[in-house]
């Protein structure tokens, strides 16, 4: 599997560290309670299909990126820098 | 027909014309007391014990493909009960004991082979961790032996002791551990359950749930029509999230791919199971002679049932580092399975938060050895509506509460377990 | 500048670069443009935010990540990174790495095929021309590759890995039947 | 000798000597082992898996199920090598396998007598009684009988290499289709890689007699090969098998670099693993001929027609003197012509419907006779023949295209599975596409290459399409011969018969996948390439289902078996993983250090002095030296991360449970990091170097994960923070200097600094100079002594060690290793790896007070859960054996006195233990339920696996200097 790192270009997936679904948003730390955090930390949509997910280019530019990938076919539609995806 | 050497010889004389199907290929009936979704080892075992232990025989197992076509048919067949945490040990030991009588129970030779499982350690800290684990096992009445380097040498003299990157310092050996012939386990359970009246329905995919007025699950929609059910029990392994989503549930599970490998057939050379603690590698030899081995998961969410080359290299590197004698053995076939990795690495056997629905999920890469106990405890939960004591820790709410069962101590990241 | 390498004779010439000041330069938030301007002012270099080498003189910037560079300075004094930090004050954070990397220069016709055998990135001159930079991995060792000439590459690896990287280099050269000429910096 | 006088593509000027089962023979360069055996009239070459039936050579390719030999001997022995794909070399040594005592007389052939019992799946029905006999008797017997060849049990002496390739177009297979494709794309200037597993290019053109452009096809092949070699963007890899298709158009291939040599040259790898990234791919892997299932179809002498054709035309051998043909396709007739041209007698051409020329017999072969084939039976008539060539139709070789999940579909026109929807970026050409004529192969190659070029936006130069002698191949089907006498095999290697298929169907194994697993059809080393489709067709017939509906099984990588060593490359034995060495490594080695692996690092574990008899003596001396004098310890492997920028302090506040923003410049603070689930992640110190700059430390084990975590927080969680972070672990060599004499020593090292307690107190930090270079000084203490850590750029690390030794010589400065470090920290009750095991909470470690209530931080919310702060959780305590001199060990479990050693009494366990010189006895840290409230209580530390049971007293985890007077001194 080759991942199109927005900075480095296409790289083999073994250069990356996988984290998972990019959808869950960390609750506001000052406000949120246990339940909200538990909901952020544990359950996952575990999509069968196109998914936005976090990968870290550990053996490359050391940047977290968001990759759009289909979990059924591993086909990759694209990738963006995580810090830009957030904005 | 009962299986035995006598029936076999008798049939041999008449050209084996007398054998009937091992299990009835049933057509779906309109309703059952219990519908089990998933014809893997767990679903079939659940059906068997429901019928045999709890006398509930109006049961259907619905399988989207052919039985045993999921992980039950593609795992590396290791059985062991060398767990660390109190939530796990009694459960896996129950399973081990069921394995030990399985063939007689099922009248099917599942080739349960207790030739030992050896976990190697490479540092003092790792040895301490194994001592902790071995002691926990022994306190639970499970067999465990701590080997020093000499002990390992005696058990597996062909390992790389002399110029290893991570020298072998010892190991934890469970002699009762070993392997079982995975396909036979599935077929044996199917045959035994079918004989007791359970309907095994293949090529029947569940596509939705039938809900009662109060929201309770009262049946399933399938590719072969609607089937009503008193209770619906999910045992769909790598597809747990997908199926549970049809009931509106989000589980603490990610689906990941694990690859496995088999070499060409070779004369016996590897005793029992050996796992390489410092690399990602474990190996055993099948009765047919193939070296069956594997390593770490690929690490990314997947429903594709296949992996990629880097993990193949990683696993073979581990193999060569540990036992350089396998360099000239050829890899014959590699494949992948989709596992439901939980956020603490331990399974779930519990009521779903929807009435009428029961959950058996989250087996990660370790659910084959669990097959008998999983079936037994799940059947108990379904029949009695109360958890079996050996599986009482496998609650769904343990994640929110923090009573997680995290053997590896990796926290809430599925792919690290 | 490192002097011309002895003729490689078709093999692979490897020298270790010793006198380098090295620093990680990371642009402050939304300061990439300001950093580029500062670099232009102070060093006369057009800094590019991408995996390529900016500059051709004693000081160079190799793009290693978004808004981040590994800067090299030949003949630097031990406090070079501190002076760099002063130069870039307010627009970038500067981290001294002068000791953090072992930098090898690989030259000769075999340099490219050799590195290609280790790295799963396309090193063909069209894809990886002179001045291109890649942070990647070779034989389980993280490596920063910079194409400094048609047949010349600088390879930076973390210093603790240098021994293992050398081992890879030597076995791979032998596997290819390539004679390996090792030179120290001062000839 | 059955070598033909002329022809073939062997080099008669290069004779090669080889042995088979110890007997010497001769072949020529250009032979395979199989062709050389045939030339030497060796007919019997192997025994089958289950019944140990005598077997001969069936094919001329990688689909060979029978002719498996052990190549070479000793540590280089390679079991299960297919004689048909082994390139002959001078000195080749091969032996038959799976037989005892000899190939000709195999005792295990009694299995054949038991074959009425040994049917598919028989073992599932028996061997269940008595239960214990499985491991003791049945299984060992089964195991010994199963398996094929044997591994030597010795380490593989050869090496393996890796390489990577990128191309616009990857062409797999160099038959006419592949060559035409490569040529077309190469001429257009595309980067082309063409891989061919054979040692010669040409594919079936080597075996069949065709004309291209009016010339023998071989001439065309030679011309194309020459042109490809001349094209700068084309690379041809021979002896290279493409074995797998993976995601994103990547592929794996293995090149046999030295397999055609007796031993590789010095340094030369045996094989090389290629990883290939291609923009487009053309699969031109040809087709595999099917056998026909009739009685006795496995007898040595029964061969595939395509193989006979290859042995005659390519290798110039006569596999037999009288070669009969049983054909369902026109290729049978082409073979007859070839045989006659070579002067070989063709006693019969048998086709079911009599199609063919005048001499064809309408009928079927129902039986064979002879130890090796002597005669065949056709409709009750015996025909003398020493070879029977079967032409059963063709299966396109589409395995690689199926690796990514595309399912083959049945094509009724050609009676074969084809791939209608290859993976993105891949096209099929020639016989692989189900187009069996030469003309189609050439057309396909041309067309698909042009399509790929167009796709890539490259103009194709239009070359002429060479003219071919076309021979459209008819295909027939005949899945089994009615009225067969004797066993009719479907899977030759695994001895799966037509009857086995019927039995499986009867027993309900009616999916092709169940059929495979129950009978082992297609699970042998040829992966069903030879006979699997026949079995599936028999199943379809038995269940009255169309082939298209039944489908076929999934093809998986590798497409051909690949040596495990090739996947591992150079990463074996001591080079399995890189080794990380600290700057002070050589210095430590010179000083008698033994090293221990910590992740990839080597760390000095202890330093043996002359006269010391065991490690404990060295460690105790080192620990004592730190308590009484001064010791130095290389702590460079701890992770170091520098965090800078205006928001550095804010970021650290969110990363650590405690406040870091309030830390003054010039100070350091111990910090705890949690995971978001509330459990402890890592610990370390943070030192504030400047308002906007910190350097933090991590444990050695977690360095990479913490860095990744810091970046996750910066990039994903809080990208709005203006904070930069980078690992500087490699930049700084760091040394702990600890003990009552530490200040004196440091003062000698840094004479210009005021190191008095007032000027540089406990937890102070500073950036300073050492020998005109940068340095960092911290007053940190893991040992509980007056201590410093000094960091210098790593290239001065060794010099620093030497300088410290020199400066401290007069008061006996002592280097100490990780083991003494462990003793010192256990004496002080500091948690380390064994306690920070990912299962513990801050509360468990007695650090509950470090969770700040004044701010948010990672893990805050979930750390507060009742389950994580439950007092009954095992919590950190100290443990001391009650009886002096008794040893307590890590991993022992803690139980109340008098309680039986059973799980229900398990209350915790010992995490770390050591011999403490200051206590003068063994001490330990442990996690004990409700521990802190049990100080003074006695419990048992039980280790059933060691057979020890030690009474211990629960105490404070701080065994030494609880007030911390010394470290502040
Ligand atoms: C490569 C690999 C190696 C492994 N090695 C080991 C090992 O050595 N030891 C060990 O203990 N464990 C091992 N495991 C784990 C073990 O195989 C699994 O945990 C276990 O098999 C899962 O339970 P199961 O048998 O019921 O699952 P499965 O066999 O996967 O059963 C689930 C079934 O549900 C069906 N299904 C899914 N969705 C639907 C639907 N909508 N409708 C109807 N049916 C549906 C599927 O088709 C499947 O047949 C391994 C797993 C893999 C992949
Ligand atoms: N007369 C018939 O019935 C009939 C049937 C089929 C094919 N043919 C003949 O076969 C030829 C078809 O041409 P083609 O080019 O499609 O096929 P081909 O069989 O000529 O060439 C395929 C090539 O691919 C190579 N190959 C296969 N798998 C490989 C792998 N995994 N890695 C590397 N190399 C691999 C083979 O070694 C072979 O050289 C024509 O000459 C045609 O006449 C004839
Ligand atoms: C324990 C075990 C042993 C196996 N042995 C063989 C074998 O000898 N030959 C073979 O072709 N496949 C073997 N397989 C692999 C199967 O062919 C198959 O790949 C696997 O069950 C997954 O199914 P799939 O590839 O159809 O998805 C084995 C699988 C397992 C789990
Ligand atoms: Zn990148």
Walk me through what this model shows:
Chain A has 87 residues and is mainly beta. Chain A has one domain (1-24, 49-87): 2-Layer Sandwich (Folate-binding fold). Chain A has helices at residues 34-41, 82-86; strands at 2-5, 9-12, 17-21, 50-56, 64-70, 76-81. By secondary structure, chain B is α/β, with parallel strands linked by helices. In chain B, the strands form 3 sheets. In chain B, strands 1, 2, 8, 9, 10, 11, 17 and 18 form an 8-stranded mixed β-sheet that branches. An 8-stranded mixed β-sheet of chain B has the order 5-6-4-13-14-15-12-16. In chain B, strands 3-7 form a two-stranded antiparallel sheet. Chain C is of the alpha+beta class. Chain C has 2 domains: 8-17 and 100-176, Gyrase A, domain 2, CATH 3.30.1360.120; 20-96, 2-Layer Sandwich (Alpha-Beta Plaits), CATH 3.30.70. Chain C is 22% helix and 36% strand. In chain C, the strands form 2 sheets. A 6-stranded mixed β-sheet of chain C has the order 8-9-10-7-1-11, covered by helices on one side. In chain C, strands 3-4-5-2-6 form a 5-stranded antiparallel β-sheet. In chain C, a hairpin with a 2-residue loop joins strand 8 and strand 9 (141-149). Chain C is elongated. By secondary structure, chain D is of the alpha+beta class. Chain D has 7 domains: 11-122, 2Fe-2S iron-sulphur cluster binding domain, sarcosine oxidase, alpha subunit, N-terminal domain (Ubiquitin-like (UB roll), Roll), CATH 3.10.20; 160-287 and 396-455, FAD/NAD(P)-binding domain; 291-392, FAD/NAD(P)-binding domain (3-Layer(bba) Sandwich), CATH 3.50.50.60; 478-552, Arc Repressor Mutant, subunit A, CATH 1.10.10; 585-637 and 731-824, Probable tRNA modification gtpase trme, domain 1 (Gyrase A, domain 2), CATH 3.30.1360; 639-727, Alpha-Beta Plaits (2-Layer Sandwich); 871-969, Elongation Factor Tu (Ef-tu), domain 3, CATH 2.40.30.110. Chain D contains 24 helices and 50 strands. In chain D, a hairpin with a 4-residue loop joins strand 47 and strand 48 (921-929). Classes of the chains: A mainly beta (87), B alpha/beta (417), C alpha+beta (187), D alpha+beta (969). Chains in contact: A-B, A-C, A-D, B-D, C-D. Bound molecules: flavin-adenine dinucleotide, nicotinamide-adenine-dinucleotide, flavin mononucleotide and zinc ion. Flavin-adenine dinucleotide binds at residues 37-43, 62-65, 69-72, 74-78, 205-206, 235-239, 243, 258, 260, 294, 337, 339, 363, 365-369 of chain B.
């Amino acid at each position: 599997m080759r991942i199109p790192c927005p900075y480095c270009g296409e790289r083999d997936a073994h250069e990356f560290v996988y984290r998972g679904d990019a959808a869950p948003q960390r609750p506001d730390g000052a406000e949120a309670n246990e339940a909200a955090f538990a909901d952020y930390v544990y359950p996952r949509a575990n999509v069968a299909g196109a998914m936005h997910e976090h990968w870290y280019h550990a053996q490359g530019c050391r940047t977290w990126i968001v990759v759009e990938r289909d979990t059924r076919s591993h086909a990759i539609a694209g990738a963006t820098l995580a810090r830009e995806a957030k904005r | 027909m009962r299986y035995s050497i006598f029936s076999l010889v008798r049939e041999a004389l008449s050209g084996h014309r007398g054998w009937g199907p091992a299990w009835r290929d049933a057509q779906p009936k309109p309703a059952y007391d219990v519908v089990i979704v998933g014809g893997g080892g767990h679903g079939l075992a659940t059906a068997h014990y429901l019928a045999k232990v709890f006398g509930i025989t109006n049961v259907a197992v619905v399988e989207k493909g052919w039985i045993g076509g999921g992980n039950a048919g593609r795992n590396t067949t290791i059985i062991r009960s060398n767990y660390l945490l109190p939530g796990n040990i009694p459960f896996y030991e129950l399973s081990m004991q069921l394995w030990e009588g399985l063939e007689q129970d099922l009248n099917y030779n599942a080739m349960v082979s207790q030739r030992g499982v050896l976990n190697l350690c490479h540092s003092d800290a790792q040895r301490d961790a194994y001592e902790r684990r071995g002691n926990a096992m022994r306190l639970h009445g499970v067999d465990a032996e701590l080997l020093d380097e000499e002990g390992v040498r005696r058990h597996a003299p062909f390992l790389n002791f002399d110029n290893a990157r991570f020298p072998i310092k010892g190991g934890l050996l469970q002699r009762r551990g070993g392997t079982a012939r995975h396909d036979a386990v599935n077929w044996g359970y199917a045959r035994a359950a079918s004989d007791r009246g359970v309907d095994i329905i293949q090529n029947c995919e569940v596509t939705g749930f039938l809900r009662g007025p109060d929201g309770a699950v009262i049946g399933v929609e399938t590719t072969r029509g609607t089937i009503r059910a008193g209770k619906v029990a999910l045992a769909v392994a790598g597809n747990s999230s997908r199926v549970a989503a049809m009931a509106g549930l989000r589980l603490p599970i990610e689906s990941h791919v694990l690859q496995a490998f088999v070499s060409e057939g070779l004369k016996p050379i590897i005793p029992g199971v050996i796992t390489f603690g410092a690399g990602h590698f474990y190996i055993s030899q099948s009765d047919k002679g193939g070296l069956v081995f594997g390593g770490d998961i690929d690490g990314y969410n997947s429903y594709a049932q296949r992996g990629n080359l880097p993990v193949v290299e990683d696993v073979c590197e581990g193999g060569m580092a540990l036992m350089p004698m396998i360099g000239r053995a050829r890899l014959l076939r590699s494949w992948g399975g989709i596992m439901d990795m939980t956020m603490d690495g331990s399974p779930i056997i519990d009521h779903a938060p929807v009435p009428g629905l029961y959950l058996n999920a989250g087996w990660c890469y370790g659910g084959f050895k669990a097959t008998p106990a999983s079936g037994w405890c799940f059947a108990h939960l379904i029949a009695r509506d109360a958890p079996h004591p050996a599986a009482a820790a496998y609650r769904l709410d343990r994640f929110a509460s923090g009573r997680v069962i995290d053997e590896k101590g990796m926290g809430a990241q599925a792919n690290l377990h | 500048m490192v002097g011309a390498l002895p003729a490689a004779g078709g093999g692979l010439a490897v020298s270790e670069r010793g006198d380098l000041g090295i620093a990680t330069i990371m642009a402050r938030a939304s300061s990439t443009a300001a950093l580029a301007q500062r670099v232009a002012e102070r060093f006369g270099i057009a800094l590019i935010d991408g995996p390529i080498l900016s500059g051709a003189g004693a000081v160079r910037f190799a793009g290693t990540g978004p808004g981040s560079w590994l800067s090299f300075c030949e003949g630097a004094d031990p406090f070079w990174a501190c002076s760099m930090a002063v130069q870039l004050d307010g627009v970038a954070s500067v981290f001294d790495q002068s000791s953090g990397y072992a930098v090898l220069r690989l030259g000769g016709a075999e340099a490219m095929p050799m590195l290609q055998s280790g790295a799963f990135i396309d090193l063909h001159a069209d894809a990886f021309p002179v001045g291109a930079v890649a942070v990647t991995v070779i034989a389980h060792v993280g490596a920063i590759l910079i194409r400094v000439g048609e047949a010349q590459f600088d390879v930076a690896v973390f210093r603790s890995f240098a021994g293992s990287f050398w081992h890879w280099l030597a076995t791979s050269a032998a596997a290819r039947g390539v004679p390996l000429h090792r030179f120290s910096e001062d000839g | 000798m059955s070598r033909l006088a002329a022809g073939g593509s062997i080099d008669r000027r290069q004779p090669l000597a080889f042995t088979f089962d110890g007997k010497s023979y001769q072949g020529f360069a250009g032979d395979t082992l199989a062709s050389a055996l045939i030339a030497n009239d060796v007919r019997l070459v192997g025994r089958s898996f289950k019944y140990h039936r005598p077997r001969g050579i069936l094919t001329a390719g990688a689909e060979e199920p029978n002719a498996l030999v052990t190549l070479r001997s000793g540590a280089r022995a390679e079991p299960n090598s297919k004689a048909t794909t082994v390139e002959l070399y001078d000195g080749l040594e091969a032996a038959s396998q799976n037989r005892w005592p000899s190939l000709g007389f195999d005792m295990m052939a009694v299995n054949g007598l038991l074959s009425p019992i040994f049917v598919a799946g028989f073992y599932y029905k028996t061997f269940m009684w008595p239960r214990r006999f499985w491991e003791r008797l049945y299984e060992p017997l089964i195991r010994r009988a199963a398996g094929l060849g044997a591994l030597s049990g010795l380490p593989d002496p050869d090496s393996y290499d890796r390489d990577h390739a990128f191309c616009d177009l990857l062409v797999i297979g160099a038959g006419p289709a592949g060559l035409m494709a490569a040529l077309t794309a190469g001429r257009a200037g595309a980067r082309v890689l063409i891989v061919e597993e054979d040692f010669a290019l040409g594919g079936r053109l080597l075996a069949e007699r065709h004309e291209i452009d009016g010339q023998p096809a071989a001439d065309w092949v030679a011309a194309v090969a020459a042109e490809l070699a001349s094209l700068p963007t084309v690379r041809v890899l021979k002896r290279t098998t493409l074995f797998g298709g993976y995601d994103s158009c990547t592929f794996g291939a293995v090149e046999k670099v030295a397999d055609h040599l007796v031993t590789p040259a010095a340094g030369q790898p045996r094989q090389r693993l290629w990883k290939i990234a291609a923009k487009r791919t053309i699969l031109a892997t040809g087709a595999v001929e099917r056998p026909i299932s009739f009685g006795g179809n496995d007898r040595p002498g029964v061969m595939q027609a395509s193989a006979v054709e290859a042995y005659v035309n390519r290798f110039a051998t006569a596999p037999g003197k009288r070669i009969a043909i049983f054909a369902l396709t026109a290729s049978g007739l082409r073979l007859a012509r070839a045989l006659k041209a070579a002067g070989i007698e063709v006693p019969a051409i048998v086709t079911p419907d009599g199609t063919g020329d005048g001499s064809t017999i309408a009928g079927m072969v129902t039986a064979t006779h002879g130890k090796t084939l002597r005669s065949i039976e056709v409709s009750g008539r015996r025909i003398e023949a020493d070879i029977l060539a079967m032409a059963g139709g063709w299966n396109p070789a589409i395995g690689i295209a199926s690796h990514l999940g595309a399912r083959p579909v049945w094509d009724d026109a050609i009676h074969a599975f084809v791939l209608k929807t290859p993976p993105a970026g891949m096209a099929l050409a020639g016989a692989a596409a189900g187009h069996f004529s030469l003309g189609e192969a050439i057309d396909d190659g041309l067309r698909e290459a042009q399509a790929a070029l167009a796709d890539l936006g490259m103009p194709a130069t239009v070359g002429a399409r060479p003219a071919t002698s076309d021979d459209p191949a008819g295909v027939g089907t005949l899945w089994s011969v009615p009225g067969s006498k004797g066993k009719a095999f479907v899977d030759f290697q695994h001895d799966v018969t037509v009857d086995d298929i019927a039995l499986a169907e009867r027993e309900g194994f009616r999916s092709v996948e169940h059929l495979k697993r129950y009978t082992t059809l297609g699970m042998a080393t040829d992966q069903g390439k030879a006979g699997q489709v026949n079995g599936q067709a028999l199943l379809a017939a038995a269940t009255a289902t169309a082939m298209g509906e039944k489908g076929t099984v999934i093809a998986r990588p590798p497409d051909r078996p690949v040596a495990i060593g090739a996947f591992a490359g150079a990463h074996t034995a001591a080079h399995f993983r890189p080794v990380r060495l600290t700057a002070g490594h050589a210095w430590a080695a010179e000083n008698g250090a033994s090293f221990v692996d910590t992740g990839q690092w080597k760390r000095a574990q202890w330093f043996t002095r002359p006269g010391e008899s065991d490690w404990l003596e060295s460690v105790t001396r080192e620990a004592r030296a730190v308590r009484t004098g001064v010791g130095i310890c290389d702590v460079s492997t701890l992770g170091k991360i520098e965090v800078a920028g205006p928001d550095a302090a804010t970021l650290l506040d969110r990363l650590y449970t405690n406040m870091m923003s309030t830390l003054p410049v010039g100070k350091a603070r111990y910090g705890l990091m949690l995971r978001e689930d509330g459990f402890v992640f890592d610990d370390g110190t943070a030192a504030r170097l400047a308002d906007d700059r910190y350097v933090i430390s991590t444990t050695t084990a977690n360095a990479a994960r913490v860095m990744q975590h810091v970046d996750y927080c910066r990039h994903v969680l809080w990208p709005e923070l203006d904070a930069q972070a980078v690992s500087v672990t490699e930049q700084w060599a760091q040394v702990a200097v600890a003990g009552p004499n530490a200040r004196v020593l440091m003062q000698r090292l840094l004479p210009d600094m005021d190191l008095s307690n007032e000027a540089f107190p406990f937890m102070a930090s500073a950036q300073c100079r050492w020998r005109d270079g940068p340095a960092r000084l911290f007053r940190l203490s893991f040992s509980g002594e007056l201590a410093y850590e000094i960091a210098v750029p790593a290239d001065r690390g060794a010099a620093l060690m030497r300088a410290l030794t020199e400066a401290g010589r007069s008061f006996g400065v002592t280097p100490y290793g990780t083991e003494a470090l462990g003793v010192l920290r256990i004496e002080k009750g500091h948690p380390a790896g064994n306690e920070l095991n990912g299962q513990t909470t801050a509360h468990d470690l007695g650090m509950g007070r470090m969770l700040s209530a004044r701010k948010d931080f990672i893990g805050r919310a979930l750390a507060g859960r009742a389950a994580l702060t439950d007092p009954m959780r095992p919590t950190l305590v100290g443990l001391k054996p009650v009886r002096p001199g008794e040893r307590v060990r890590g991993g022992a479990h803690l139980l109340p006195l008098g309680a039986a050693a059973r799980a229900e009494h398990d209350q915790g366990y010992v995490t770390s233990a050591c011999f403490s010189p200051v206590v003068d006895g063994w001490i330990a840290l442990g996690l004990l339920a409700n521990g802190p409230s049990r100080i003074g209580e006695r419990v048992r530390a039980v280790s059933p696996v060691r057979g020890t049971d030690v009474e211990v007293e629960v105490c404070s985890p701080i065994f030494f200097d609880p007030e911390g007077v010394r470290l502040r001194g």
